[in-house]
């Protein structure tokens, strides 16, 4: 093998490799020597600039540190600016907010509008001079002098707020406020303020000062569902912004700070007080003299009385958000920004829902210590017929029907029972109502008692808590952690119904400890009368351009119903849930001649009270509670929520052909009584409906009524009146509800962890 390569070749290869190695060594040596000489020359050159002693520490070191810190600051600013500049990635950023929508009800009648009609906006030079001055004096006096961020104004606001111990002045410039309106939300976070600052500088580099001011006057929210000062002038004073006087201009300029608080159609005294502050600002800024504003002080503006106008503002806000998402799905080549939208709202049902909630809260809210409510009425294809997001839109624009997450309590249990029916259980399956624990958590029933062996129908009718928990364990089968596996199945089924809330895995999930929204809960229940098909909540039925051209239609372009659960399971659930209304916890929701089913819900410490139910035509969810999560006064889902639901649905079914529900017993007749509602002698128990406010009549009060009755009888006999006196209603003539006795001293029951 060694003779394969000739000896001469071996010698040449060896010499070549030695030569290559020598060249590498020589190159490295020469390079190192050259770098050494270059460094020495650089050091010799830099020695000429050496500064020592005090000059080094006074000049050189501070400059060096400043350069280092400045470089780090620039890198940090770049990192912070990237999220802000992503908001401007859309080439159409200037038109993102100029969507103008006129809304119609389902019958084609106008009900309101949202957005800004940018192509019809008034030129800046046509705005009154006193309005421009009032805005600048109040919002940003140095607007034409700063670069987007008013450093002096921000510092002044920080000092003033620190001295006052709270927020007294805002430090945002008009450019920053415009950046927030165009790109950001109203959340109060440091991240939002940082993004706002960078976007303000970015706007200043692309728009002139007059363009920024014009956009600000057109895009700002001015209360009452209006955007821009021209829309506000029409809404509050019934005139164009071109024609407003100084007093009206001051009132409009005062709305920028808090349009809800200072809206003149809601709180005229507060609006006038704010306008007076604006007039003070005009004088302080030197834009006007005291003599020029004296007339406006003596004759303040008066807004048009719009108390009788009942615009469905919660619904319109939600519909406008849906419309903005829908427009984003249109092709990029589609440039139309003005639309006419026909919605699913029925104004008769909407007014009935608003009146029902207001009447109940006005009559019983103080007794029950309940201050807020929300409701959603939907038809069975997901079209929202009515929405009430709170008691007073003028006082709070927060939509409790779409944005508030509250515990549903036992109204969540139908998802648990549906899961059980899909996994081999039947309405007549027997489950023992007895003690059960998952870890250190042991659910309790209302009343802290157990019923023994019950069917699933009896369990949902009586809203037993233990049974859903036991079902969640049984659904897990023989897995190592059956409760966890069972809860995962329940969450999966709830997702099929349309529940998009987070639903974190907790042991108490089967009895409604996780939070949902009213609108999701209401439309999810439509799956039962829809024979197992879930639908998507929506307000938009039809979208047309301002010229009348059809752009989008729900029945053609919207998502189609999905089969969430088998039709047989939905039918069984209808039969089970009908008992809740006919003989269970929601008897106040029953309507004559209309098949009805649903479920009540009450949460820990009575913080939330629900009733969610449906007919063959509509589904509706009603929630009562408090914004601060404070407990109510023992309000249950079968009290005000069920009564409110009844009042709303009676109005909703006026003039409507009542439809049957697949699975409802006896074609709409009340379900036969179950053993849960039978007395010991086999006679059905009388319905225990508890009308009105929380029971406060004590045993002593009942005895007094009996004594009054006897006194009236004796007085009638003494007077010799031949006519038989009419006896007043007393405790002997009409049985008092059980809760009257519970309200007596010594008999008060301890609230259960979770109830019906």
UniProtKB/TrEMBL annotation:
GO MF annotations in UniProt: penicillin binding; peptidoglycan glycosyltransferase activity; serine-type D-Ala-D-Ala carboxypeptidase activity
Keyword Membrane listed: yes
Gene Ontology biological process terms in this record: cell wall organization; peptidoglycan biosynthetic process; proteolysis; regulation of cell shape
Keywords of the record: Carboxypeptidase, Cell shape, Cell wall biogenesis/degradation, Glycosyltransferase, Hydrolase, Membrane, Multifunctional enzyme, Peptidoglycan synthesis, Protease, Transferase, Transmembrane, Transmembrane helix
Region (Disordered): 716-756
A GO cellular component entry from the record: outer membrane-bounded periplasmic space
Involved pathway(s): Cell wall biogenesis; peptidoglycan biosynthesis
Transmembrane segments: 63-85
UniProt domain Glycosyl transferase family: residue ranges: 117-282
Ranges of residues in domain Penicillin-binding protein transpeptidase: 373-649
Reaction(s) the record says it catalyses: [GlcNAc-(1->4)-Mur2Ac(oyl-L-Ala-gamma-D-Glu-L-Lys-D-Ala-D-Ala)](n)-di-trans,octa-cis-undecaprenyl diphosphate + beta-D-GlcNAc-(1->4)-Mur2Ac(oyl-L-Ala-gamma-D-Glu-L-Lys-D-Ala-D-Ala)-di-trans,octa-cis-undecaprenyl diphosphate = [GlcNAc-(1->4)-Mur2Ac(oyl-L-Ala-gamma-D-Glu-L-Lys-D-Ala-D-Ala)](n+1)-di-trans,octa-cis-undecaprenyl diphosphate + di-trans,octa-cis-undecaprenyl diphosphate + H(+); Preferential cleavage: (Ac)2-L-Lys-D-Ala-|-D-Ala. Also transpeptidation of peptidyl-alanyl moieties that are N-acyl substituents of D-alanine
Keyword Nucleotide-binding among record annotations: no
Compositional bias per record (Low complexity), positions renumbered to this chain: 741-756
Family from the record: In the N-terminal section; belongs to the glycosyltransferase 51 family. In the C-terminal section; belongs to the transpeptidase family.
Name assigned to this protein: Penicillin-binding protein 1A
Organism per entry: Bradyrhizobium erythrophlei
